[in-house]
Amino acid sequence: MPMPDAITSSKPTQELAAVTIRFAGDSGDGMQLTGERFAAVTALAGNDFQTLPDFPAEIRAPAGTLSGVSGFQIHLGSHRITTPGDRIDVLVAMNPAALKTAWPALKSGAMLILNDNTFTEADLKKASYESNPLDDGSLDTFDIRRLPMNRLTEEALAALPLSPKEKDRCKNFFVLGLVSWLYTRPIEPTQAWIEKKFSRSPELARANALAFEAGYRLAETSDLFPIRYVIPKAPIQPGRYRKITGNEAAALACVAAGQRAGKPVVFASYPITPASDILHELARHKQFDMRTIQAEDEIAAACAAIGASYAGSVGVTATSGPGLDLKTEAIGLAVMAELPLVVIDVQRGGPSTGLPTKTEQADLLQALHGRHGECPVVVLAASTPGDCFFTVYEACRLAIKYMTPVIVLSDAFLANGAEPWRIPDVAALPEFEIPQVSEQTSSTGFHPYARDAMTLARPWVPPGTPGLEHRIGGLEKEHVTGNVSYDPVNHETMVAYRAEKIQRVTADIPPLTIHGSPEGAVLVIGWGSTWGAITAAVEQAQQEGRAVSSLHVRHLHPLPCDLLEIARRFETIMVPELNTGHLQGLLQTRLLRKIHGLHKIQGQPFLQSEIYEAIARLT
Amino acid sequence: MIEHLPEDRPSAASVGLSRKDFISDQEVRWCPGCGDYAILAQMQKLLPTLGIPRERFVMISGIGCSSRFPYYVNTYGFHTIHGRAPAVATGVKAAQPELSVWVITGDGDGLSIGGNHLIHSLRRNVDVKILLFDNRIYGLTKGQYSPTSELGKRTKSSPMGTIEPPVHPVEVALGAEATFVARAVDTDMPHLGEVLLRAARHRGTAFVHILQNCPVFNNGAFASVRDRAQRLEHGLYLRHGEPLVFGKHQDLGIVLEGLAPKIVTITPDNRDRVLIHDEQASEPTLAFLLSRMTYPEFPIPLGIFRAIQKPTYERALIEQVEEARRQMAPDLTALLSGPEPWEVDRP
């Protein structure tokens, strides 16, 4: 039977500019998949969007409990979308725990699509509800749509020879069908995806397709959904797009860097949340001479990457906070040996094991200073999921050009969040510059620490190069010769060279872009994943006529040359950060004036409103 | 381009190197009488005979007295951080499988702080040669007990004697499924040279436990086999296919009693019961039995405990790259586009 077509639906439609939807359920309910597929068809529908998956650290916490709730939020619209949405317009709650967890973020009057089958005494108790919110009046101000989703899915699949458990697991596609109808999403891409995904198991393909269809049909025919919504296409720059998460983008950048540098990439990593997906992604792309190593520990991962770059490959490792702690000594070795190394730190809540699946920006000071001795490295931060590509690519380029470790700061929000990404032209990606042995250094014998006059990089001479055999290591090097040296003045000279080399990276930093007036009352300075919330809040304030501008810093060490000069043009500076004020403190010492901070350390990204309110207090 | 691993290495004559080519311009700074000198000399003698161009050798070390080794050999060398040399070496081999990579480590570097990397390098069978210099003491930090120090040993950090039983390096290596495990003594130069040559020719991780003295902080270490006269009595030379016989008059043998080894005086009656060494046995049982024999209850086995062939890590790594290429040509634009790209047209 053909599916009801979007255009021929008999129900009236209403146009919306934007909506924030959260799919929430038990860890085993498959809400991440529902959300991801909804985002995929939202992209195809031409809307801009941002997503925020929010899941527990436990793989399967006890079913039905608050700690087991897994949510996926998407903010989509017909204009530029830079955040996953402050407040929820539509909640799909597969159980009472999902409702309870979402409660603080619900917009008043939000639409609640609830799975009726789970509002039982047992499930309510697991969610710590003392009375049933469906009966006690606490939901009176909301727009309630109750459906027995378990039963409806089961009925739709009644004829299939599958176990009750297998049928139950299809209800996430029932939800996807329902919400796809509600927001007039295209159907065919989902059907094609199901067919491909379950190609080895035609019965499961059939079951999920049927559940999807049942959800869609139910919404079309049921009185519960009298109106369907249309969100016009967003004015997006023309081009070819894909949906991308931060971890996908970081992984693809490693591949692109190897291809553009003309070198194999050795990616050595130890599994850690939320960085593991980078390893998973890269392990699938070996045809690009991508050599992935799952190391025995974080230290080995960093050391293998160093060994690889010593031997002439692009050496990359990825981790999160606890792993960055462990890699510290190895990063110091790469600083002393002056070898390229890229360390991707997908930040999560800390200290210690902290909040493994939640976001935070509290590794900045560690990235900048967390090593013994005078040990400068380049530190970059990505601002959106798609920007992880350009930031990691730039990290690989700078690491080789300047023969230095580069730490890239991503975070759990960027890593798992997704957005539409304009696919870059491969040929237009920046060129790699490989430090060569100059004639000057080779005429008097080879000197491994003779530096390039411009960049101060030493030459990259991997083993296997005839005639240039030499020794390097972690002991202090004599200037030029690279021999071991304990000479006091030489040590100070080398400390200065290593610092100056990193400072010269400023030559590669493009001028900062000021969003708004180039001078005036308030400047909001951000870094990393706060870009979206800052941009949305600043634009909101600007539309109200408030004198506020913003700029976003990708290079955290060295800082862009023009940063301090721009900052001095503003009366008040505010730095919102998901930490206790790392960049704020840094700028305060550099500018010798008070910098306002806005701090949030809750494992969650900033809301637009939180930054807007802080701006409003200052303007 | 992936460079293929050389199946047959070039002959020594085609490379034309001598011992002098492997002596660096750096002054050797080990203490007088240190066993490290003997090992360095044997290596400088061995390397030019292997038929490998000098630029293809890489010496990688961690931290400790032995780890200064790379500075003294005129090849590529990397003096890394404490315990991590096997991890760095794994990265080097992943990048350039055709290099001849040697890890120089000690009892503290390899078995204490770097124990984890050692185990995993062995089990992966990365094609590196690991020389573990064992003097049963921390020398560079001036005399604390090491993981191979005898139980009860009095040192600066154990004035009342250690309370930790020692680790047995050969047993650890066998337990980690090492494909080549050997032991040699710094003072027995011809035998050390023989063992190093076998290690060099092995494809896969070759682990060589080298017993040595520390004249400053642990003088007399392994005296039972380092001293020439004692070695004849207490050393048990392992020769593949030959009986396990030792003693000044070669009249003592090792037999099996139950599951344990036993020393017997060889007689015409028991001669057939003396165990025959088999370094190629598919099961490491005999090698384990030998690895647990310690002085003074038993002689110290010297030579090759185990030498078997298994695929190397880096070859498998490159084979996966090649397999992936056979399945799919590398197309960066297609990769960046992902499975579900879409076009946004001009409005």
Proportion in β-strands of chain A: 15-25%
Please mark out the parts of chain B with pLDDT under 50 across 5 or more consecutive residues, or reply none: 1-13
Radius of gyration of chain A: 27 Å
Overall average pLDDT of chain B: 94
What is the level 1 CATH name of the largest domain in chain A? Alpha Beta
Name the shape of chain A in a single word: globular
Q: Supply the helix-strand structural class of chain A.
A: alpha/beta
* Count of structural domains of chain B: 2
Q: Helix/strand-derived class of chain B?
A: alpha/beta
CATH class of the largest domain in chain B: Alpha Beta
Write the CATH fold name of the largest domain in chain A: Pyruvate-ferredoxin Oxidoreductase, domain 3
| Averaged pLDDT of chain A | 95
Report the biggest beta sheet of chain B as strand number plus sense, adding barrel if it closes. Answer: 8 strands, mixed
Task: Please give the share of residues in helix of chain A.
Answer: 25-40%
> Which two chains share the most extensive interface?
A-B, 74 and 65 residues
Please provide a brief summary of the model.
Chain A is of the alpha/beta class and 619 residues long. Helices cover 36% and strands 21% of the residues of chain A. Chain A has 21 helices and 22 strands.
Attribute tags:
heterodimer, A: 619 residues, alpha/beta, Pyruvate-ferredoxin Oxidoreductase, domain 3, Rossmann fold, 4 domains, 7-stranded mixed sheet, 6-stranded mixed sheet, 22 strands, 36% helix, 21% strand, globular, B: 347 residues, 2 domains, 8-stranded mixed sheet, 3-stranded antiparallel sheet, 29% helix, disordered N terminus
Structure description:
The complex is a heterodimer of chains A (about 625) and B (about 350). Chain A is an alpha/beta fold and about 625 residues long. Chain A has four domains: about 15-230, Pyruvate-ferredoxin oxidoreductase, PFOR, domain III (Pyruvate-ferredoxin Oxidoreductase, domain 3, 3-Layer(aba) Sandwich); about 240-425, Thiamin diphosphate (ThDP)-binding fold, Pyr/PP domains (Rossmann fold, 3-Layer(aba) Sandwich); about 440-510, no CATH class; about 520-619, Rossmann fold (3-Layer(aba) Sandwich). In chain A, about 35% of the residues lie in helices and about 20% in strands. Chain A is built from 21 helices and 22 strands. Chain A has a seven-stranded mixed beta sheet, with helices on both faces. In chain A, strands 3-4-2-5-6-7 form a six-stranded mixed beta sheet, with helices on both faces. The mean pLDDT of chain A is about 95. With about 350 residues, chain B is of the alpha/beta class. Chain B has two domains: about 10-240 and about 275-330, Thiamin diphosphate (ThDP)-binding fold, Pyr/PP domains (Rossmann fold); about 245-275, no CATH class. Helices cover about 30% and strands about 20% of the residues of chain B. Chain B has helices at about 10-15, 35-45, 85-95, 105-115, 115-125, 170-175, 190-200, 225, 230-235, 285-290, 315-325, 330-335; strands spanning about 55-60, 75-80, 100-105, 130-135, 135-140, 145, 180-185, 205-210, 235-240, 245, 250-255, 260-265, 300-305, 340-345. Chain B is globular. Chains A and B meet through helix 1, strand 9, helix 9, strand 11 and helix 11 of A and strand 1, strand 2, helix 3, helix 5 and helix 11 of B. Strand 17 of chain A pairs parallel with strand 2 of chain B.
